Amino acid sequence: MAQKKLGIALIEIKTAIAKGDNLPAAYNIEGIAFDYLQVHDKAQMAYRQGLQLAPDDRVLRNNLGLSLVFSHDYNQAIQILDALVHEPDATERNRQNLALALGLSGDDAKAQLVAARDLDEASVQKNMQYYDYVRSIH
């Protein structure tokens, strides 16, 4: 993955999983590779397989939410990411991914509120401009 040899990485991951190494991290890596390749349905399937093994895995849940954003399924992405953000150990990444989903879905007011928890006003405004731009090209 680090060398951007995603095809080889996917083969290695599938081999590890086939050998019985059903580790949630393997499904997470598989999902990331598929997201990089823009095959989001397969990425989401991988994240969900990992979540069957570890339903509370924050990284898998975050990456599933982000993958849903990539495939324009904003409602489901918001549902998953919002749940993460309301947990005590929510991270800036969780909040900014939720802000992204909200912004791209057109809920600017909530996106600004969420983004402002971690970013200065200038950065929030840049993000809002980005969300507007992305919405305009889709």
Residue share in β-strands: under 5%
Q: Using only CA atoms, what is the Rg?
A: 16 Å
Order of helices and strands: HHHHHHHH
Helix content: over 70%
Structural class of the secondary structure composition?
Answer: mainly alpha
Could you tell me the number of beta strands?
0
Second rung of CATH, namely the architecture of the largest domain: Alpha Horseshoe
* Largest sheet entry: none
How far is the first residue's CA from the last residue's CA?
Answer: 29 Å
Overall geometry:
globular
Q: What fold name goes in the CATH topology slot of the largest domain?
A: Serine Threonine Protein Phosphatase 5, Tetratricopeptide repeat
What's the CATH class of the largest domain, please?
Answer: Mainly Alpha
Query: Mean pLDDT, nearest integer?
Result: 91
The total of helices stands at 8
Unreliable spans are none
Characterization of the model:
This protein is mainly alpha-helical. It folds into two domains: 1-71, Alpha Horseshoe (Serine Threonine Protein Phosphatase 5, Tetratricopeptide repeat), CATH 1.25.40.10; 73-138. It is built from eight helices and no strands. It has helices at 6-18, 24-36, 40-53, 58-70, 74-85, 92-105, 108-115, 121-137. Helix 3 packs antiparallel against helix 4 (58-70) and helix 6 (92-105) runs antiparallel to helix 7. The longest helix is centred in the C-terminal third of the chain and has 17 residues, at 121-137. The chain is globular and about 50 Å long. The model has no long low-confidence stretch (mean pLDDT 91).
